[in-house]
Structures are given as structure tokens and as C-alpha cells.
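User: Please predict structures.

Assistant: First:
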Amino acid sequence: MFRVFGHFIPIKMLTLLILEMAVLGATVYYLLSTGIHSPRLLTDLRGQLGRFSFLFAGVVGIAMISMGLYSRSAMSDYRTLAIKVLIALALVVPANMAGTALFHRELYESANASTYWWIKAPVVWLLVIFLTRVLFGLANQREFMKRRIFVLGAGTRAAAIRQMAFHGSNQSFVVAGAFDPGVVKDRSETRDSYKSVAAASAGAPDWVEIVRRSHASEIVVALEDRRGLPVSQLLRCKTDGIHVIDYQTFCERETCRLDLDELKPSWLIFGSGFARGFFTDLLKRGFDITVSSALLLITLPFTILTAILVKLESRGPVLYRQERVGLHGKTFMVLKVRSMRQDAETAGSPQWARLRDPRVTRVGAFIRKTRIDELPQLINVLRGDMSFVGPRPERPFFVDQLSETIPFYSERHCVKPGITGWAQVNYPYGASLEDARQKLSYDLYYVKNHSLFLDFIILLSTVRVILMQQGAR
């Protein structure tokens, strides 16, 4: 894994991105240059050809990232992969044709680019993606492409690691071996010092040699009780260059979420993350204002049209105001385009939105799927009640219930809530206690590792969620 500003990125998928963009840029450069038959003109336009070719590859890369084509699960479902490629293609080609005609007119005319973009570009792109993905898929099945890990422990944590290895979406590692050092019989015995643990494990099997023979590059400490931790042997492995990592950090790295069942306050306190500061907050606020202002202007025609349709279909106000819990538990009124009947909660108690909820109007069903009903929340962002990216704000009624049931739930309120978030792009709509637990595991990952880089990744991923209507109700 490659860590950028706290966020874990799979090295294999990053390598695939660089490879595909390089092959695509080189192919576009070659095809454009063969369309120019004058050697003198080709010499004059060579620099422009290179810039244009790799700019095109970069735009394609951003579109593919936004569609989740470099996520951990990108290779798990080829049917979904094909749909995402086609949607990314539909996003890039028209924009790139317009850019070519406006800013590279000489190149556009000289290389007969109009024929190229309408016919050749989609074919070239699809061929490059097909070839690289097939070769990557074949190579990914080879064991040399996977990290070999050694698991220290034999309980539920060790079982969870094996589950990840066999059923993980990216299958980036294999369990090369495991060892259970056992549980300390006399729990009153103190074993905090190096000497006491070394003496206690003197007669134990030399599992350090077993780790070496298994060619494992990493040991995951997944013990249920660390009072039996074989410190001396772990230290020998560490000094031999074998990476040693605890279970929670391993889970965070491999799944990009936190395991709530095994989460301990001490790990959160002494671990990395939760970086805050005046400069960081200032950058994030600037990012929020810039993105929200731009989107508010771009989507204004859609918002006005939606308001007219909502007003024509049902009686009641166009905008819906609802109390939500924000930063540090303070409440605010969130703005949404009304998508339900005005008497949706006549019973008096708040309700989760259900699949095919009868309270949703016909216009409401469409704007909920396309997320148009969330657009007025851009005003909440400009006011400072929300951030563009962050955990979704919940109603006080549900927050009180969930805080009593789910540990660490209140920790999600240490950052501003957002219109979109890490949980929203990784997990479908939540309408139950278990859904709330799963989404919290992603929200806590964001709270712990949030940065402008991760915000940008979430912003791109939101395009996929909207276009593919994932998690809408």
C-alpha cells in the first residue's frame, strides 16, 4: 500500500493507472502524428502533439478514477467494469472534442481529428483498457503479485484476516502461515519487560524461523490478549527487516475503514491521524466555498426547474427544512428540495426512508436518485453549517438512539458533516442499525485520515454514485 496524506492507495492499482495512461498517451500521439503527412508540419506540431496526447490521457484517467475503475473492487465484476468504462467514455469524448476544436484548431484540422475522435478514439481507448485489464487480471492471479503475511494469533481477528484474504475484493495478500503463542496461564503474572517475556518464551517453538521459511514480508499481530505477546521473537523479526503491524492498522489499510468490533480507545489515542490545524482548516474552508459556489451556479437552472415540478405535483413548500446534528453535536437546519408528501411524518416520530417508500412523490423519486434534492445544501456549506465532504448529518432522534447502541458514534461529530462522504461512496443507503454501524466504520476512517486529497477522491467518486444511482432511496 502507498499512503498519500493518510489515505491508503493500492500500489497495484496506482501502477495500473500509470501504465494505462502511458500506453493511451503514446498510442494517441502515434495515431495523431501518422495523420499529418507533411514532415515540416509534423516537426512544428510535435510538441503540441505530445502535450495534447498526454493531456487527453490525463482527462481519461480522471474520468476513470471518478467511475471507480481504479478502486480495490475494480476487477471483481467485469460486467460492472464494462458499464463504468462506457460511462467514462461518454463523459470524456464530447468534452475532449470541444477542447480540441477550441484550443488546438490547427492540430484538429491538420490531423483530420474530427474523424479520429468520432470513430478512432473510442476504439483505441477500449482496446487499451481491454488489453491492460486482461493482462493485469492474469498477472494478479499469480502469487508473486500478492504480499505474503504471517498471522500471529488464532482467534476471531485471525479468522477475519483469512476471510479478507479469500474474499477480499482486490485479494492483495495471501496468508503464508499462522502461529498461536497461547494464552498466559497465570494472568496475575507481570510480563511487561523484555526479559520476562523472553524467559517465558524460551522453550517455545522458534516460529521466527518459520516466518523466514514462509517468505512472509509482514507479521500481523492478531492476538486476542496481548499479555501473551512474544516480544523477543517479534523484535528479532523486526530487526531482520520483517514488517510488524497490529490487527486494527492492518484492517484500516486493507479495507479503508475501521473494525468497530475490535476498536479500542487506546489505538485511537496513540495511533496516527486526526490531524487538525489552522492552515488545514483554512484550506478546507476555501475548498468548500470554491466548490460549492461553482456548483451552485452550474446547477441553478436544474434547481429552478425542479422547484417548478415539485410545486406542480403536490401542495406544500419547495424547500424542506429539517433539524440535523452538526459539528460538536450542535444542531442546524439542513435545506433540501422536498421529495415526499407534506404529511410524510404525521405519526410524529421520525422514520428511516424505505426502498420504494410510498411517501416519496414521482418527482421526488427522480430527484432523490439523481441527488438533485441535495443541491440546496450548498447554501448550508456556504453558511458554514456543513462541509462539502464529511459524514452525513443525522437527525437528533436517530443520533440519540445510535449513540447509545454503537460505540464511538459521537466521534463522527468532531468534523463538519458533508453533502457527500467516504461512507456515501463506499456503502449503500443506510436504513437500519447494522447499516449505521457499517457506515460509521467508514466515517471514522475519514475523520481519522481526512485531508484535501481524500476530499478530492471522494468528490470524484461522487460522480459515479450519482450517474449509477448507487444507494438512492
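Second:
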Amino acid sequence: MFRSSFAVAIALACCAVIPLRAADPGRDFSGKWVLDPQASNLRALSAQPDPFLEVTQDDDAIHCAATAADGAIWRWSYALDRSERKYHVRNETMNSVAKWEGAALLVNTLVSGPRDYTVMDRWRLSGDRTVLKVERHVMNGTAELEGLLVYRREGQTAAAAPAAANEPQSLARRAAPPATARITVPAGTHIPMVLLNAVDTKHSHEGDRIYLKTSVPIALDGRIVIPRGSSVTGTVAEAKQAGRVKGKGELFLRFDSLTLPNGVTRDLRSRVGSSDGAGTVDRKEGKIGGESDPKGDATKVAIGTGAGTAAGHVAGHTGMGAGLGAAAGLAAVLFSRGPGVVLPKGTSVEMILDRDLFFSGEELR
């Protein structure tokens, strides 16, 4: 009798578990999924997503297999106990941690390889479970990109499961201006940037390339036109070392092109407006000068000569010793250079546009 009751209790418990696992189908991403490029927002993403995704799921993990455009297949898993999973895709190493937020799955992935960046994904199913949306946020240094991947269950059509109308307001696609609109960033606009490679008057030469990223978004009429993280390339137009005895180093920089995160590029001929910790800036010429010597060049010569004379007295008593010491002091000054210009990686630099930049609404989608 006891055994029969126990068996019935076990059976009832098992029956109770089944509906519990199926109680939230919104958390079950299992199936074969096909990317819908028309409903997705891929323009802001530097890497194209895989067009086919297959997902299987159990109590412990979500297992994924993606097929790339070239036929390569990549497999990985997200643990559902918030532990870290490590895997490799091509030449990059991924470390992912996933957690639930209601019916949405949040995945945070640290990517290391030729470049290091962070990817934050938010997975969510549509009410009829025919559409899988992945909101993607990519952070690469100071650059932040947002995109939306819309996958449809294999065999479903766009008409059967429209998803683009439900795009979140936070994505740039929602706020994009009409394709026929013309947006003008006027000449004189100040664009703050961060230097990605070091430049200085001692090691840099005319024609050397410089690379920067915009550090704040530029908005017009309530819409972002130049997002933070846009790429700027420039050229060292001239690098002059400080002269001997007098003079200071001078660095002439020219900015040549601006590329938005979606790949739209504009040619520039812009100049430096300001630079942190780099001495004086001549906005008209785009010139950065080294710090001036507060004591003056004549004082430097006098101090150097006086110090040499004193050393001559100690070494050679009077007369000839003093003369030799003064000459040595003067030589030390003559062979030393004045202050140069050094702009380390990470230096804040401001660009002033020399002319208007024009964009169409389509280019800013």
C-alpha cells in the first residue's frame, strides 16, 4: 500500500513538473531561424550577422549553431545559471554570461582578438513565437553602436509575422529622418575627438597619418547626425622641432575624412580647434605650439653661461678656467632644444569644420 501511494505521488509530481517547464513558452528559443535583413537594422553594425541560426535548449543552457554566408558553422552555448561560457569564432575569443529578465534573455559577451570590444544582446520572442528579435549594443572603446537583428522561424514569411513595426524607440532606425531630407552640418561646428595614435614633433614627420574617434554625438534639430565613435583620419602637415637657444616645437595637423559607423564617408579639410595639455593652439593655421619658456631664451643662455663659469672657477681657478667654463655652459644650451609638442594616445582634440557637410536622410538610417 505504501509503495503504491509513493508511486502515485511520484507520478503526480512528474505530471506537475511538465506544465511548469512549458508554463513560459516565451523563454523557449528552440528552432531554426532565418535572418530578415529588411526588418533588421544592420547599417550601424560593423560586422554582418550570420544569416542562419539554430537553437536548442535544455534546463542548463541554450545551445546555438550559426551558419555564415560562406558556409562555415559556429557552435556555442549560454549557461542559464549565470556562469561564464568561453568559445571561439574565427580569430576571436568570446566570454559570455547570460541571465533572464522576465521573458527576455540578456547576454553580455567580452570579445578579444585583433580588436577588443563588448557585445550586449537582448533576445525576445514575439507573442506568436514566430519572430526572434535580438537587440544588439556594441561598445568598442569610445564607440557605441546599436542594431536590431530580426530572425523569422524557418518557413515563416514577413507577411505572416511582421516585426519591423515593433522596433524599439531606442534604435537609430526609428529616429531616422525621411530619405528625401537633406541635413547640413554647418562650417564652424566644433567636433570633440580622441586621438588613437600618439603624435609628437620629435618622431612624427610630414605625411604621417593620424586616427581619431569622435567622443560626443553631434545632433541637429533633435536628431543625431554624427554619432559618437565616428572615425576621423588626418595628416601631419608639418612637424617642426624646437630650435636651439630659442624657439619652440610646432605641429600642424589637418583632418581629411569623417566616416560614420554605418560606413558613410565625407572628405574634410578641417583644422585643430583645441587640444588638452598641448601648449598653445592657433585655430586659424591649425597649429599646435609647445609650451613657452617662462624665463625667456636670453635668460637660459645667461644661466647656462653662469653655471659654466662657476664650474670653471672650481676646476681651473681663474682666467682660462672661467672662460672654458663659460664656453661649456653656452655649448650645453646651444645643443639643447626648446619644448616640443607631444600628443599621447587618448589626448582630447577638437576639430572645427572648414566647410558644410551634407547628408541625406537615407545615409543616416
